[in-house]
Amino acid sequence: MAQWERRGAGLPFQPQLIFPMKAHVIYGVDKRITYHCEEPLVSTLPSSSFSSSSELSSSHSPSFARLNRRDGAGGWTPLVSNKNQWLQIDLGERVEVTAVATQGRYGSSDWMTSYILMFSDSGRNWKQYRREDSISGFLGNANADSVVQHRLQPPLEARHLRFLPVAWNPDSRIGMRVEAYGCAHRSEVIDFDGESSLLYRFIQNTRSPGKDVISLKFKTLQSDGILFHRDGRNGNCITLELVKGKLILFINSGNATQPSPPGQGGLALGSLLDDGHWHTVRLECSGQGLNLTVDRHSRPIWAPAELCHADLDPEISFGGILAPGKPMVFPRKNFRGCLENINFNGEDVIGLAKQPGPQILVTESAAEACPEIRVRLRLRPGTLGRSPRHAGSELPTPSGKHVFTTSASPGRGWAGPRAAEAGSGAVGSAGSWGLPGANVGPGTVAFACAHPQTVPATFLSAQSHLALPGSPGADGASVSFQFRTWNRAGRLLSWGTRPGSGGFFLALQDGRLHVGPRASPGQLPGLVSAGVGLNDGQWHSVSVTSTWGHLSVMVDDDVASTVHTTVPVGVHPGDAYHFGGCPAHGSGSDCSRSLGPLGGFQGCLRLISIDGQEVDLISVQQGAVGNFSDLLIDTCGILDRCLPNYCEHEGTCSQTWTAFHCDCSSTGYTGATCHRSLYEPSCEAYKHLGHASGFYNIDPDGSGPLKPFQAFCNMTDVPWTVLQHNGSALTRVKGASLENPHRAMFQYTASAEQLLASVDRARHCQQELELHCRRSRLQDPRDGTALSWWAGRANETHTYWGGSFPGAHQCACGLERDCLDPQYGCNCDADRDEWTSDVGVLSHREHLPVTQIVITDADRPGSEAAYKLGPLQCQGDGSFWNSASFHTEASYLHFPTFHGELSADVSFFFKTTASSGVFLENLGITDFISLELRSPAEVAFSFDVGNGPCELTVQSPTPLSDNRWHLVRAERNVKEALLQVDLLPPSTRQAPEDGHRLLQLNSQLFVGGTAARQRGFLGCIRALQVNGRTLDLEGRAKVTPGVEPGCPGHCSTYGHFCLHGGQCRERHQGFSCDCELSAYTGPFCSSEISAYFGTGSSVTYNFQEYHSPSTNASSHAASFQGETTLTQETIAFSFRTVQAPSLLLYVDSFYKEYLSVILAKNGSLQIRYKLDTHQDPDVINLNFRNMADGKLYHVNISREEHLVFVSPGQVNQKTWRQVSLSSGTAFRAIKSLVLGRILGLVTNARGWPPTHGAGHQRTGLATNAQGWPPIHRAGHQYTGLATSARGWPPMHGLVTNTQGWPPIHRAGHQCTGLVTNARAGHQCTGLVTNARAGHQCTGWSPIHRAGHQYTGLATNAQGWSPMHRLATNARGWSPMHGLVTNARAGHQYTGLATNARAGHQYTGLVTNTQGWPPIHRAGHQCTGWPPMHGAGHQYTGLATNARGWPPMHGSGHQCTGLVTNTRGWPPMHGLATNTQGWPPMHGAGHQCTGLVTNTRGWPPVHGLVANA
User: Fold this and answer.
1) Which residue, among 164, 134, 131, has the nearest Cα to 53 in the 3D structure?
2) Which end of the chain is more exposed for a tag (fewer CB within 10 A), N or C?
3) At CA 1092, angle to CA 1089 and CA 1097, rounded to 5?
4) How far apart are CA 1106 and CA 1126, in angstroms?
């Protein structure tokens, strides 16, 4: 047997060029491999071993096609040079071929430049040799004399070789001389007829101690059959079965009576294995599981260890299932075909079966349990040729093996010794594939392999065409054939193509067979359809029978599926049958029109029969029958392009005849082969795409094997990745002991491999662990034995706890020396009767996450423990910022060889000021891969996998040498290549379908330069990932001259991410945004600090605390505040509303200076500045647009002394307007800022919005001259209203103001349950206390008696009549009933503030210029100040008098058209004024007349006697 010895294991095979004494070019040579199978095979063959499709002359015959020979015309030349020519060589026997070589014809200009190599065992049913599973062609010669040699990887075993020229010297003819190299092939074969099997028994000491290996080769034309079966105890078994051309490994573990049926479970490998060619199988079974290899494609599968050893019987049946003595029925097909070189753990099973002198013993099988098995033929090794009289003895072979061959032929008896001696070593009969003389019948095996004589034809393209004549004398028409294809659509057959002849067609459409009469051009009627999924690559049979007016079709010999139809099909005997597409000449145009949108069939046909006569395709090939074009006869060239499956990450592969496609949906990956991940590798990467906190899919290894998983990203300056588990709740433990420990296993939302990858990428990881204990210790105080512990990522145990470090055997309190008992390192170890705890954070990243917690000390009386494990939290991504700086063109970093044979991807960031430079490069002998900055605005990706250099470029509209970070992604796979820079459109290039696929590199990977130290990159490279693996640039740069780890200057690239005035701050790894000077927050200052304002709501910010002056003081309130003066300010805010008018912003000072920003009733913006109390305010009207349209607007106001710059508009719109102020240049003693009051009412001149009435909205009401808003009516409950701009609280049932003053409760009812003020916290029955005491103070008025008339009251010294039982203050001012005030200050008690001199507000009202307080009546408010609105009515159109006092309105009526008195005071509804002109007060819901005023003219209160 030929041996290939590879030296330097683990290194990829590389082609080299070798030039011996004569000019030879040898492809596929590796000096590390020594070949012992390279003898010339052709040069010594006789002339009869050479044949060809044709020859130019006798001197150009194929016998002259020996390498380096000059006989005859110096080589073979066909009669016509086209692609239908071939040169064939019979090597005499099946040999192993390891290389082929070609030359042109000696002394001529005839040579071929490329060719296809085919091989066969029998000279029929040829198979095309492919390298790398896809490459079908070989490079030929460039002249007539040089030798071009190709090593075959892998070698092939065959008897016949056929060379098919594909291209040749265009100026001459095809000319060839050839040689093949190899050695003899050892072959032990056995032929099964589909009803027989072979049972091999062995003794235990022959088995490998740790591994069982079964290897064999097989070939068959049947798509189903059992190769081998191994049974065991307890229902265990292993079965390798051919199912629809694929090998399925079925595994049963358990009490099953039979293996699982086909298609249910099992491992599938291989495809199209029913092609009549040899296929290799190897099954390894060990404690690690099973590994199945089919034709160099391997796949592991987990299986219990007992399946390989203890639970399996010491016997294996081949070709079927044999279970002697076991009553089981297996509804599976036996194998029909040949097995070669069956080997079990080094033993030649077929060789044992062929040992001389076996005794054929006739025994009955379990006929009742398995009636189809009637005979079992048992061969006793070492007894071949003996007579049946020795049947009674069982003689083992010297090695202790027993081989049994059996027949399972229904109704047959024992085959007899004559059958065992008949023809070609048969046992029972000759082979089942038609060997000469082997006609004894089925139920036997033979030690020779038959060669069935089926001749397929391959339709290579949609234009492939085969025309066959019909039978002239036939009555009707009948056609049958078999086909296999991957295409969903294509015309298979049409008949009757001459004009007016009628006829019918057969076509595939959507995988179904459509049959019908020929239609007019462009139409496809398809009257009947049959079958489904017929494009699955399997052989399907079709039978069509047509007579006049009747058509029947049967698919796959299924009578039940036969369809019949009555159609007007014209039958003309002798019409041609056209298979496939349209011929290249003749009536092709009519044919093309009749095809419509389908196109011709691509696939294989065989067993074609017309009118009951089988068509000889060899005669067609020789031109004796019919005609054809673009066809390969005597071969089926179907190729499973989904084997191996190049769709990565569980992508679904589908295919056509020429290409495969990957469905990547639901995989989390994209690209032609599902290679690129859709998700980022970390939360850090998501943050730099501008994402906020939330759940994201994380793929830590990118295109690597790990799947994405979901995690929560907490987007802080350095983001946190949070991974939850199934044990986050507090868990209590009782009764646990060393013998019965409590063991908690934690399952995370990611797998162990995903967790490990995420932890390794992070800069820091932590996990909080809480331990609560009561008489439950963590370690034994006697010897320090751990009583509780936890396990880390590798299931290793740890006894240090949160806040401690590895090896400390302590808790956090032990390190900080603050444990409850100093002699212990943990609080729990104090073993106290009360609950204690040890809480801390585990932060040793190499041990995280926690996977298990074990507690054993909770079984003593009163003993109990509890624990709680927090989520795994990992911060940052070290790989994302791993970078290196390259300072010279000769400097580079080197890494191990880049292994990306079938798929490769590279991604990295770069920044530079240089115009060009190589990013990375890796070389092979001929293959290479390179990425470089070709010019300041161009990046190039180039590579060669054997198909010639390929290059992709991306042009940037702006220079890339701008010292900013740019992202490069490059990918190459078997389908396409891709290059993308930043977010520019990617550049792609499709790979040839039948080209080289393997990228074979052997040099180091150079980063930042080349091996030649030329054209090196100058700049920074960061986050370099190769096939999902991050390269440690910083680690390698630390030991490399000319390269420094890290790269500063991230803000030049990412500074624009810091929005709304946020400042970019450099960090060692990355950057952060400082939002201190911005009204936004978040990692990029992008989350606005905003609030939603409901109707009437607002936010007040006090710049200075308001301090109470002394009682009865009279100085200005502002004198107690800081005298901060602003000569300039900048204000910026955004808003969105649909309400107008609205107060957006108000700033005031203790000197009554203010700034207000208002939306007017029409939605326009209005800004008012009043910086001088003696001048009218400056009003800036910005009629930009209606800004109450629900859109977001941004307002910028910047003032420098008297100049104001305003920019209103939508976000990112900057249009400035300049205004000069006349009302002052400075803000003195700023008091407060109010944001947002959206009431839908018109504000007064000061910008104060009015208050609405009882349960209704009042609009169109004007405020008084001081700008105080009117008060709502009494007797109703008003809720949800905010305080006024000055902070005065609203009435009954409302919240207090920012100073904490409680509201007043009026309206002629008993006032109880009132809220106290902010200072007090005490409530007096029915009374409101003052701000300092919490008690009723002398001089302050209590609450009135509700709903009664007060008479007989005495006035004070000033003549003011007090209210019922109220005391006046030191100045003699009589407070109003239910109100508290002091004489000096203007503080507000029980919701009121006033100053006797200054005109402060009582009960939310403004006094007159003399400081007289207004009157507050029961159920009504009768004051001379702001107008009172009625309950449930709207009062409009009321004018003030000459002094600016608003008129009084009545209760429940609209007061209009009233004449004022001589003083200008308007009378009350239906009331007369007094002599002083003061209007009388009206009563509660009544007309007040005839009231006498006092000498000062002040009107009395309803029902009260005035003073003197």
Assistant:
1) 164
2) C
3) 120
4) 19
* Distance (Å) of CA 538 to CA 268, 273, 1192: 16, 10, 64
240 contacts 263 by C-beta, under 8 angstroms: no
Q: Contact, 1288 vs 1297, CB < 8 A?
A: yes
pLDDT of 160 reads: 96
Task: Name the more confident of 648 and 422.
Answer: 648
Angle at 1489 between CA 1485 and CA 1490, to 5 degrees: 150
Query: What distance in Å separates the CA atoms of residue 401 and residue 396, rounded to the nearest whole number?
Result: 6
Among 1271, 1273, 1269, 1272, residue whose Cα is nearest residue 1249: 1269
The DSSP secondary-structure symbol of 1499 reads P
Percent of the chain residues past pLDDT 90, beyond the cut: 37
Among 87, 97, 102, residue whose Cα is nearest residue 129 = 97
> Which residues have a Cβ under 8 Å from the Cβ of 199 and sit 6 or more positions away?
315, 316, 317, 318, 322, 324, 378, 403, 404, 405, 406
Please provide the average confidence, as pLDDT, over all residues in the chain: 73
Q: Is 196 helix (H, G, I), strand (E, B) or coil?
A: strand
Cβ contact 228:318 at 8 Å: yes
| Nearest-5° Cα angle at 819, 814 to 823 | 75
Contact yes or no for 306/282 (Cβ under 8 A)? no
| Mean pLDDT value of segment 1046-1057 | 84
Distance CA 1269, CA 1262 (A): 8
Compute the CA torsion angle 995, 999, 1001, 1007 (nearest 10 deg): 130
Residues 6+ apart with CB under 8 A from 1130: 1196, 1197, 1198, 1199
DSSP string, 1372-1391: -PPPPTT-B--SSS--EETT
Q: How distant is the alpha carbon of residue 545 from its chain centre? A: 53
Count of other CB atoms within 10 angstroms of residue 1091? 10
> How far apart, in whole angstroms, are the C-alpha atoms of residue 150 and residue 25?
8
Q: What is the per-residue pLDDT across 204-241, written as a single tens digit (0 to 9) for each?
A: 554 455 788 999 999 999 999 999 998 877 777 889 99
Cβ–Cβ contacts within 10 Å for residue 1062, how many? 23
Confidence band for 699, pLDDT divided at 50, 70 and 90? very high
Give CA separation, 446 vs 336, 339, 383, 425, 1279, in Å. Answer: 12, 10, 17, 6, 103
Those residues whose C-beta lies under 8 Å from the C-beta of residue 451, and which sit 6 or more positions away, are 121, 122, 124, 433, 434
For 1456, which DSSP code?
A: -
963-1022 pLDDT, tens digit per residue, is 999 999 999 999 999 999 999 999 999 988 778 888 889 899 999 988 888 888 999 999
Round to whole Å and give the CA distance between 280 and 185: 14
CA angle 1377, 1380, 1385 (to 5 degrees): 140
Residues 6+ apart with CB under 8 A from 343: 213, 214, 215, 216, 349
Q: Which among 23-32, 73-82, 499-508, 1244-1253 has the top mean pLDDT?
A: 73-82
C-alpha to C-alpha distance for 304 and 307, rounded to whole angstroms: 6
- Any idea what the Cα angle at residue 1178 is, between residues 1177 and 1181, rounded to 5°? 125
Question: Which residues, in sequence order, are CB contacts of 1069 under 8 Å at separation 6+?
Answer: 763, 876, 878, 881
Pairing of strands 33-35, 4-6: antiparallel
Q: How far apart are CA 1062 and CA 1046, in angstroms?
A: 25
d(CA 985, CA 969): 12
Residue carrying the six token digits 């400082």: 1074
CA gap 1317, 1334 in Å, rounded: 8
**First-last CA distance in the chain:** 141
Distance between CA atoms of residues 4 and 96, nearest Å: 12
Q: Model pTM?
A: 0.68
